[in-house]
Amino acid sequence: MSNTSTMTTYFNSENEISKEQYESLKENSNSIGVLQQGEVSCPVTVNFCCRIEIPPGFNRDSTNFPEGFGFQFDLSNIRCYKEPLLATASVPTCVGGEPLECEVVAGYAVRVCGSSTLLVNAPLFAIEPGFFNDKLPARGCCSSQTPVDDIIAYTCNPAPCTQDCVTDITGGFVSWSAVSDECGEYILVVSEITLAYAGCTTD
User: What is the largest CA-CA distance in the chain?
Assistant: First the structure.
């Protein structure tokens, strides 16, 4: 396998950032963030990988690669569930009696479950343009769906998440690599995003 070129786009929740800024963002996000009284958020990392096939007779734009590439993340299939965290507490009994050791709910872990999907597309051009010229590219695409099942927060609030689980993409990157091997030409796409808990809808 030989990579002819690789380009990577880093971003936060607002816009494109540098690699150094992204590494700093990841380092800082590893510390627990306080949401509100009785809640803390823990970052969850989701990874993606897919490949855009380049059919015979077509090529990517080698001069402006990866200009014209587009990508979107879908988080609509993610739900949150609260799992009780048990602890032992001593409960007093009658005078002179031994205290009772009882299991009590000390708090709740918020588990984020479901899947996240990355959709990527890229402009492809005919090597020998026919009716359409090289200013009107076709587009190749690929998608990657990644299961999500991790603890994203801890809370004291017992109310269950009844509807929306609000997760924010605090940062991530998408990397495109133009590859040529015995299987032909394709674009390898590797991506990572960091999810943060922002709360959930309760009754």
Answer: 96
